[in-house]
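B., you asked whether I could sanity-check this one before it goes into the benchmark set. Here's the sequence:
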Amino acid sequence: MAGDDSFLSRWARRKNDARLGKPLEVPVPPKPAPLLAPSPVPDIAHAPSGEALEADTVALPPALTLDDANALQRDSDFKPFMAQQVHPEVRNAAMKKLFADPHYNVMDGLDTYIDDYTLSDPIPESMLRQMVGAQFLKLFDHALIADPVAQSTEPALATEPLLTPDHANTHLRLQPDHAPADPVPGSSAA
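And here's what the prediction gave me:
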């Protein structure tokens, strides 16, 4: 095979270790990546005095809350709510607020379930007359009158067997089997 690290070799090794009672090697899951990358902190001690004041005034924006999402208007900026650090509940509330606006809530005709499928679409009568099921259920009385073959009630034609010559298509007829039957059912001579 491909070597010691193939799937089957690892499976066989684990099965053998389990049979011998060795503890299973549990793979260590990888550490998740941090959500926020730490920004570099400027060295305030060696910076000029103007930059030192700027570093003091720059702070992280406050976390967005549900109150912020509820305060959104039609012309508001929704971009901050799409950041990865925003809680999913707050993001969903902002999206709900955005798509509640009639400007975005427009039926485009591509929606699958906008039709009322409980209403029946009747089959046209001309098509229904041609259906065998409608004729069988005798939904239309005059359909039988229009069809002269269905009207024929001559019993001689219905009960008289069809006559075919005995020697026509002899190669298509089943041939008798002259082999002897098994003396015991289920056994064979072979």
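One thing to flag: The chain is about 35% helix and 0% strand. Otherwise nothing jumped out at me.
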